[in-house]
Write a structure and sequence with these properties.
By secondary structure, this protein is an all-alpha fold. It has one domain. 74% of the residues lie in helices and 0% in strands. It contains 13 helices and no strands. The longest helix has 28 residues.
Length: 288
């Protein structure tokens, strides 16, 4: 698979992920029950899709599964206890962890363009959600930060398995999240609308999304795997704009342009540097 194809898959992943906040708030159920059922549906979907063969359990597979379970479970909790904006912004502190630990864990040294992209993206997200970031919802904010840690280490562990098959960690992580949420599923049953939302969450928002992510991460660095889908935080409010008619303010628009510029810069950087340092080819001389 080419790197450009992997980048397109990551952009599709971001599109699928971006529906999470809206769908999670749509389902009226305990957050742990939502997390567990969403992951149970996703695990079944991924098993049917990939039909994975049994493999020996190792520390990287297990580490990826635990990090995944932490990421998806705490993200649902965060969306129920704080605003969707808080949850997604604080979860996207993940690239900071990868930038610091990626070289030690994977031997993937961040380049100056990675640090520049990260700085621009964080500034953009701060501008985009400046009106929504508050000190309220402390536990929700803490859950979102923990989700960011899980997100980062999931990417590191999945990238560590680039020569194996990272989907095993994703399936096992969904099973762990399903078991964790099981005790909370017996209070009451969700409505028909809730089951539709759970199905969409399990099959598309994490099932199909992480199927694409687990394939793409074998062909990009761990930091790229988190920086490229960083457009997800601006897609969620776009759904709100389309469905509810809420328009972002001026700062949000500046933030959106900053994030898109950062991702575009990071994607074009290898091509720009290659062409900048490529030796000049003299034009052919005409004969006669």
């Amino acid at each position: 698979m080419s790197r450009s194809t992997a980048i397109l898959m990551l952009l599709a992943t971001a599109l699928l992920w971006s529906a999470g906040g809206l769908l999670i708030k749509w389902v009226e159920w305990h957050p742990m029950a939502i997390s567990g059922m969403r992951s149970a549906i996703a695990a079944l979907f991924l098993v049917l899709l990939f039909r994975p063969r049994p493999v020996a359990l190792n520390r990287y597979l297990l580490g990826g599964a635990i990090a995944y379970a932490v990421c998806v479970t705490t993200f649902v909790i965060a969306n129920k206890l704080t605003s969707a904006a808080n949850a997604i912004v604080l979860q996207y502190t993940a690239p900071v962890h990868v930038a610091f630990f990626g070289y030690w864990f994977l031997g993937e040294r961040p380049r100056r363009v990675d640090w520049l992209t990260l700085a621009m993206a964080l500034i953009g997200m701060t501008l985009f959600f400046m009106d929504d970031l508050t000190l309220g919802g402390l536990w929700g904010n803490l859950a979102a930060l923990l989700s960011g840690v899980g997100f980062a280490w999931m990417a590191l562990f999945l990238r560590k398995q680039k020569d194996a098959d990272p989907i095993h960690s994703v399936i096992l992580g969904n099973l762990l999240a399903a078991v964790i949420g099981l005790p909370f599923m017996f209070e009451h049953a969700p409505s028909v609308k809730g089951w539709i939302g759970l199905g969409a969450l399990g099959i598309f928002q994490i099932g199909m999304a992480y199927a694409l992510f687990s394939i793409a991460i074998r062909h990009v660095t761990a930091l790229e795997a988190l920086l490229i889908p960083i457009i997800e935080p601006i897609l969620n409010p776009i759904w709100v704009l389309l469905l509810l008619g809420e328009k972002p303010g001026p700062l949000a628009m500046v933030g959106a342009v900053t994030i898109i510029s950062a991702v575009t810069l990071r994607g074009l950087a290898p091509w720009l540097l290659k062409n900048r340092w490529a030796p000049a080819v003299p034009a052919p001389r005409k004969e006669g």
